[in-house]
Amino acid sequence: MCADPDDLRSTLNAKVKKDKLEDVSLFRTEKFGTITIVKKNPESSLYYEITPFREEGSYTDSRHPDEIQRSDSLVLDAGRRDFTINALYYTQLQQSDKKVISKNTHTDEYILQYLKDHKFIVIDCILLLQDHQVIDILLPKGNLDKNEFEKFCKEQKIELEKIIWIIRDPYLWIQDIVDGKIRAVGKPDLRFTEDALRILRAVRFQNTLNFDSLLDTDFDYEKNTWKSMKKHYFLVKNLSKERIHDELKKVFSGPNPFAYIAILDELNLLKSLFPAIHAIKYLPQPVRYHPFDVYTHSLLALNFLQTINENYLVRMAMLYHDCGKLEQYHSHSFNLGEEERPFIYSGWLNHVNCGQDLAEEDLLRIGFTNKEISEIKWYIKNHMKPGEILMSKSDSWKKKIRELYSEVGYEQVFNLFDITRGDRAGHYNPVQKPQIDNVNALYEILDDLKNSEGQFTIDKMLVNGDDIMKRFELSPSPEVWVLIKKAFVRVLEDAPKRNNKEKIFRYLTKD
Fold first, then answer.
1. How many degrees, rounded to 5, is the angle at CA 246 between CA 221 and CA 37?
2. 3-state secondary structure at position 39
3. Which residue, 8, 62, 97, 397, has fewest beta-carbon neighbours within 10 Å?
4. Which CATH architecture fits 274-452?
């Protein structure tokens, strides 16, 4: 929702005073007239992006307007926006602690009919305006003309002193709320050819409004908006990977990435954004373990995981965890013998290995960083390990979990166990009931390790490379690292007793 310039000035002044001037940075993009306000701490969240009223020319690059002109017209400014949900404007007339509109002030039917007849309505302390001419009269230069406002209230018999908020809705978002529609402003074809990111944003808006909203409405797309999205889906390929990444990060941090992927599939966008996921559609699996194809299983697993884990990287890893089965199942056509199978599945064709490469290729293309991809690949690589731990003898579980904990820390191992639960829940197997509850034992061991030992890493070992070279009279070489790793595996099993320099050397000398 957009505020009037006077409201923005007061908001900015309040923010700067609250956060101290030295803690706030202002950046201005002159070409597009946008002021961004952030804290100097790079980890802090964005405060505001402010763009003055403007008119725009055509978008020949399908991203930026070729020409921008400043404008005093709120209606013209609203006409360039993407969706009616983003074409609301407000003015706060007076300070008030009143935050909630009285419930059941009017029925939806009454509000819609009154707006149709009068193009304005008073709901509790809010004046809602939709008439373009009245909006321009009341805001002749972008700010509220108080004389015209008092005149309007008098003519319409509105008690001015009771109005706290004025909301301008020139493109009828209120009607769209009632109807449960996401609708493009003006001509949908024009909106999406101007900027194809709006297609992805429309899907995110529906996702958010339906699954993380105070509005008690089921949202779908307005018919012409949806037809235009399907018509212009191919333009998404022209978007920069950075813009796609930012959009996907919001979605996978949001309420329902499962639904988002399903809609992308219907829009024919899965193949261009997630080709490795598109490739596993209709890829059958052994019915004993998976009654659905790999793609359906992956989405069902994601659907469960998103209810227990909000980390966008973990959710992305859940989506990609089985993408390598395309290559693994293809190897079944090789007619491998008993001796050849172990060799093949210990190599790249094992889906936990090739899946990492396939995911990396996709994620680099859509702007994920090396750091993000590294974590996702770790989850794909290790997503079978919790199950293997549970199949081993229970007295070895702690040792194996300790090794994972040492490698990446508590949170990442916890996330891995969540992926295991999602993987098993995603079977939905009527033949064999998925074992989800037994994963709880792994969480308990991990918590016990955290509380009793903490994370023991190789840098905490009391012997380092220099010590190894000096003791065994070695020069720098791979052999030194082999000895360090060998010692670390030994010490990790019981660090309080074994992390001793002489004990480590005795162990290495003995062997």
1. 105
2. strand
3. 97
4. Orthogonal Bundle (1.10)
